[in-house]
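User: Hi! I'm a student and our assignment asks us to look at how structure tokens line up with a sequence. Could you show me two examples?

Assistant: Happy to help. In each example below, the sequence comes first and the structure tokens follow. Example one:
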Amino acid sequence: MSDHTQAKKITTHTLLQMKEQGSKISMITAYDYSFARLFDAAGIDVILVGDSASNVMAGHETTLPITLEQMIYHAQCVIRAVNRSLVVVDLPFGSYQSNPDIAVASAIRIMKETGAHSVKLEGGEEILPAIQRIVAAGIPVMGHLGLTPQSIYQFGTYTVRAKEEAEAATLRKDAALLQEAGCFAIVLEKIPAGLAAEVSRDLSIPTIGIGAGNPCDGQVLVMHDMLGINNTFKPRFLRQYLNLETQITGAVQQYIRDVKSGEFPSQEESY
């Protein structure tokens, strides 16, 4: 047996322990088997099957169009590749907001049909009844506060949230309510680092930041952004670790040249 298959599984409990020990949590998105296999083997702590699939996989402008069925498909692909990472699946827009019965039914479908380990919901006090019902059903829930992309039409902009004291106070209150409702972690998206530090200090559950500065208990990035598959998206919070857009384009252009010139396939590459 390889070390990889023996690797200790990351659970929601592991993340709590990591926070207590001051050990940072690494999280990345994945939407298919091949990338999830690479990320899991690389040692990532958490894989998020994000509703960002709506943008990066399906080409939509926002996360709103993706359906529960499509999220289930992506999560099924990811879970087949994972031995160690904790897999979190986004409940898509419309699958939990209208009432807690629908929310718990959506979460149950994800857990039963994908084998994933937990779900993520966007919002604070307004979705508390949904979170309580899902947690009561035995399903781990990750919260998401700050810039909540499913509400983008309400915000009208992707700028930093909670810069004003009123919104910051609401976020602090929402974070405490989510912890009380049983969330095992909370994503903080695009909020001032000072506020994120305060919330991370006040909570006993871990915070995962994206554009929320260093003080969070962990960080998450969208794989396509971090790997430079899409070079047009360059917010301040993004560190691009590869420039795959340029490398892939170059490789494909070389392949085209080799095919057209008759250089590929060679004698060695033929039967």
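Example two works the same way, sequence first and then tokens:
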Amino acid sequence: MDDIARHLVMSKKTLYQYYEGKSDLIHKIIEYHLNQEKMVMSSIQSESDDAIDEMIRIARYIIEFFTTFNPSLSYDLKKYYPECWSSVEVEHMGFIKNTIAQNINRGKLEGVYRDEIITEIIANLYVSSSMNITLIQMPKSEIQPSQIYREMILYHLHGIMTKKGKDLFKKNKTNTYAKV
């Protein structure tokens, strides 16, 4: 809190007028980030042309996040701020699961995702895989979380797309989807 107050050019006493302590500050920062992410996801859903386009836009957003993500953040949150980590696991991952489930249902209606897949199971697998990426500890010189996520999303899409979906993906791969 000393460093934060010094950086903000205010006294710790003033800082404590706004936050009860470091834990409260961290909780507010995470809450802010999660709310921002919900707004981004909502925007992505409304702006996308189809379910595959939506999934690719989500993937681009997450890949960008992972390029600046430090895996020790997950470890530190779990260890020192379990209540904050719990909100990430329960609230945020629940939101992500619902977003992916909506995407899968949209894709089924559009005929770009296979009808026989069970939405709930696939959405849970997606969330579980995404969470595991944040926990993978690899040396900096090796594969980065953004690269792992890229492979995971391609694996996810190719596992659920129909022939129509794969044709759409291939058709748009050179321009829209190439960045994934």
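Here is something you could point out in your write-up. The chain has a mean pLDDT of 87.
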